[in-house]
Structure formats: C-alpha cells, structure tokens
Amino acid sequence: MINELTALRANALEQLSHIWDDGALEQWRVTFLGRNGALAAAMTKLGALPKEERPAAGKLANEVKIALESAFEAKIGAIKQRALSESLESEPLDVTLPGRPVQRGRLHPANANLREIYRIWRDMGFQIFLSRETESDEVNFQMLNIPPHHPARDNWSTFYVADTDHRVLLRPHTSPGQIRAMRELGANGTQPVRVILPGMCYRYEQASVRYDIQFNQVEGLAIGRKITFADLKGTLTEFARRAFGERPVRFYADHFPFTEPSAQMDVQCIICNGAGCALCKYTGFLEILGSGMVHPTVLRNGGYDPDEWSGFAFGMGPERIAMLRYGIEDIRYFWGNDLRFLEQF
Ligand code: PHE
After folding, report:
1. What average pLDDT does this structure show over 262-289?
2. Which domains, and CATH codes, for the chain?
3. In DSSP terms, which residues pair with 160 in a beta bridge?
4. Atom of ligand 1 nearest to the CA of 217
5. How far is the CA of 150 from the centre of ligand 1 (A)?
6. Strand arrangement of the beta sheet that strand 193-202 belongs to
7. pLDDT tens-place string over residues 276-303
8. Residue located nearest, by CA, to atom 9 of ligand 1
C-alpha cells in the first residue's frame, strides 16, 4: 500500500509536469483527484489493511492528497503566466512608446488677431458694440452723408439683397454702426460714446490677392463735448504703438463723406523699417486705417447737436493688418479653410 501511494504520487506529478492547457489539466484532476479517481480508489483500500499498517498508510495517503492538490493550484497559476508571456511576445506592446498626440483645436488666425485688437482697445477704454450685417441703404449711405446716386457710393461695391428695390444690402463697411451706436448709447445726444464696432463686411469685388468679397472691419467711434483732431491723432498713434511697437506713424489728408477732415494713418513698414521694400512698395510706410472727425450731418443723424458735441471715427481692416504682421500674401487664405494655412498659427 505504501508503495502504491508513493508510485501514484510520482506518476501524477510526472504527468502534471507535461500539462500546459486547461483541458488537459481538468482531465488530470478528474483522473487523480476526482471522486472516482486514483487517489479515491487508493483511499477506499485503506479500510482493508491490517490494523497495524493503517496509521502509516493513512498518513501517507493524506500527504499525497495535499501534495497533488497544491501542485494542481500551482499549475493553474503557471498556465496563466505562460499564456500572458506568450501573448506579450506574439502581440508586442511597448509600454515605453510615447503616446499619440491629441489634436487640439485653436483659434482661427483672423479671430486671434481680432481678439488682440479688442484687447488693445479695451485697455484704452473702448467697449465693443455689435451692429448688424444686413443694413438699410438709409443707414449705410444716406445717414452717412452719401445721398442716392452720389458718386462716392462707387467706393463701396455693394451687394444688394434681392427684391427690395436696393433698399436692403450687406454692409460694405462697419460705418453704419456709428449711427446705431450713437442712437442706442447716446440717449438722444446727451451721453458720450466710446466704442469699437467689429464685424464682417461684404463687397462685390473681383476676388484677388488683395481683395476678397468678405472681410472684417473694426470701426471706432468716440463722441464727447470737446473731442478734437488732436485726440484722434493721439489715440490712433497710441493704438499703433501698442499694436506695432515703437515705430513712426504718419497722417495725411483723405476723403470720406462722413468725416471732415479725414485722414489716413500709415505706420512705418515692419519689414524694411522705412528703407523701402516690396511690401511697402518702396514708400517705407504701410496703410493701416481711414479716420476723421465725425461730420456734423452724421452727428445730427445720430441725435447730437454738432454745436455742442464732436467726435472722431476710424475704420481698419484687421485681415490687412494680420497680413502685414505675419507676412500672409493672399487675403483669400483667411476664408479658404485650408488646414495647411490655418495650422501655421
Ligand atoms: N468706412 C471707411 C471704409 O470702409 C473707413 C472709415 C471709417 C473712414 C471711419 C473714416 C471713419 O473705407
């Protein structure tokens, strides 16, 4: 009996050492440890032994049972471990590889540039006033001192909205917002106004490197009791200093029907610093904006008494400014939605 148990243990452990899959392991368990297995069969023989042999044989039978059970448990763990290392080798996973970059969204360059301009004007005490993109002919032209059939209208190649006898249009500039801001904020010509009016404008143009049919403008308007041309020059010069750094600006006479006098402001070329280059067409200066003192007729249309109140206004093209700052050659890139362009900012 002792020999039989010892042989059983040796045989069972020998067989187990070759087993590496769950099916064979279960088969082994049934064969040796199962209710009708080899060990159970040996146990039933214990009762038939002579009395004096029983204790030793019983003790050994227990030892064999414990040995086989713990070998069985150990094998379960060993099979799992082997399966894991095999799968790691056949499907390599290098946990030291850097992760895939996550693509983040970003501001459109035109919006980033607009926000920079808003920030500068905000720091200088100007609020944002949003006016409408569809306008009436009356506010866009007549209130701005441009009567019907006036030749100055040719300066604003206008999209008219269909079927309205040319009385509704897409604004070709942000200046009609001056009228709306004065009427909404001026309290019948009793309160000062200091706003910028940003937004999309539309023009019936042949699209080209320099002109597109849509673009942003940032209008500015300051109305007060004693605003002079010196305020216009000082304020716009300070804006240029904050936007372009320490470089000379120059003003010279221009003409707009809604301002009198009117002035264009140039800033020294940011590429050649005034020496002359292709960007500034060898003038040394870049055109930044149009401006002027609000015309008395326009003040009156905004509800103010021009004998008591005065003001200045200006209008700039932020995309033009961004083109100068970042060396963008074609204004059409802004609304072309080409990621190769957009991702450069
Ligand atoms: N609205 C003018 C333009 O589109 C610019 C401008 C605005 C000029 C305000 C003077 C004052 O060209």
Report:
1. 91
2. 2-90 (no CATH), 109-342 (3.30.930.10)
3. 169
4. 4
5. 17
6. 127-128, 193-202, 214-224, 310-316, 285-294, 259-268, 249-256
7. 988 888 999 989 999 999 999 999 999 9
8. 314
